[in-house]
Amino acid sequence: MSALARFLFGRRARLRWIHLILGGALAMPYVLVGSVVVGPFTGVDDVFGSLTLQLASFAVGLPLAAITSLFPLTRPLEAGVVRSLCGVEADRLAYGPARSKGEKGRTAAWFTLHLGVGGIVAGMSLAVPPFAAFLIVLPFVPALRDGRPGLPGPLDGAWGLALAPLAGAVTLVALAGCAAGCGALLARWAPALLGPSAEDRVAAAEARAADLAVRNRLARELHDSVGHALSAVTLQASAARRVLDSDPRFVREALAAIEETTRRTVGELDAVLGVLRDGDAPGTAPAPTLADDLDGLLDRTRAGGLRVSANVAADPRTLPPAVSREAYRIVQEGLSNALRHAGERVTVAVGVDVLDGHLRITLENPLAGTGPTGTVAPRPGGGHGLRGIADRARVLGGSARAGPVGRIWRLEVRLPLGRTP
Q1: Which residue in 6, 82, 276, 416 is deepest, having the highest Cβ count within 10 Å?
Q2: Total number of domains constituting the chain
Q3: Which domain-ending residue is among 153, 176, 196?
């Protein structure tokens, strides 16, 4: 019973009833136009004095409603009302103007259906409650039946009068059931008539994919630049603290490296976040490349206490900009991994050369330690950086491999050049 009561009189049923009454209100101008046609055609001056002529005016007005539904704002407005009053999920509706013939046809069908069913339910909502109230109070108000020979036959007898309140209550429940059923049907049909077309779904999927790609790219940029900077600054500050009293020169160099690292990272961070600021121009700091800052990157890493040997056989100035930019981030992330995981006083070997039309980047460093049996201990932590390196390589059509080779951790990335520099 409670489920039936919610279906008939619950909040969703009431909102859908309001939706139907709005449809009836929207239908009235079309009914008036229809009466202008039906009246002269039938020769009747008072069209609204006859239920049959009212229905005829209603039938004439609905095709006019279908024509006016081609107005561009019809589908967005109807979709918004359906979402708010009928309880249809937002992602199942389309909010742009109908453009194709199919979309216009479905919008016209929905608008006609809304006004047609809404007009009938609205008319019933105006006529039935007064009649039901009359039946409910009829046995208790003699003035309503005294001297009224026009009362229906069943109401003239004692049993008729006794059952009149029940009949009135049943009539009201029937009206609520009719409104709830019509509202539920319209809510069920709304996604099919007002929902996105196949083209809309493809466009939405492409927009989501493009947005996800931008978010992933920004996440990689932030991870690589900020993560590397924090790792380098942490080690530089730690090294400076340990030799603060014994080696002031090294401390000054470490502080200078910290200053330079943070300055560059703030500039890169501003450039990345500029993309996220609605209405703001992107930041002015350019994306770093091998040609611009490979030497600086290696120097700042060495200032953190990590020994780096570099063998750069390829000329960074001849690399395509996209390859040079992604290669810089790959080297940066590889050094960050070494800073975090390789341990202190190790040497990282960085190699950049050209092999078989690909830019090959290699980073090698000793593993952090060995287990009690002499086997190589697993590399702790990490994971996100290596996935980011693999993603960068895959975007350019390249490949990335990382893992232990004996007692050495080796990262090898190949990026296609398209031509040999």
Answers
A1: 82
A2: 2
A3: 196
pLDDT band at 218 (very low <50, low <70, confident <90, very high): low
Per-residue model confidence as pLDDT tens digits over 219-260 = 766 666 676 677 777 767 877 777 777 878 878 877 887 777
In a domain, 10, yes or no: yes
Stated as kind and residue range, the H or E segment containing 251 is helix 248-276
Measured distance CA(174)–CA(188) in Å, rounded: 21
User: What is the C-alpha separation between 37 and 21, in angstroms, rounded?
Assistant: 24
Domain of 121 in residue numbering reads as 2-196
Distance CA 75, CA 117 (A): 18
3-state secondary structure 325-378: HHHHHHHHHHHHHHHHHCCCCCEEEEEEEEECCEEEEEEEEECCCECCCCCECC
Q: For residue range 176-186, list pLDDT tens digits in order.
A: 999 999 999 99
How far is 3 from 365, CA to CA, in rounded Å?
A: 68
177 and 229 inside one domain = no
Cβ neighbors of 110 (< 8 A, separation 6 or more) are 69, 78, 189, 190, 193, 194
- Asked if residue 421 is part of any domain, the answer here is no
Residue 356, both tokens = 């078989």
- The reply to whether 129 and 24 lie within a common domain is yes
Considering the domain architecture, whether residues 348 and 271 belong to the same structural domain is answered as yes
| Cβ pair 282, 271 in contact under 8 A | yes
Which of 221, 328, 238, 314 is CA-nearest to residue 276?
A: 221
Phi then psi for residue 105, to 5 deg, are -65, -45
Residue 44 counted as domain residue: yes
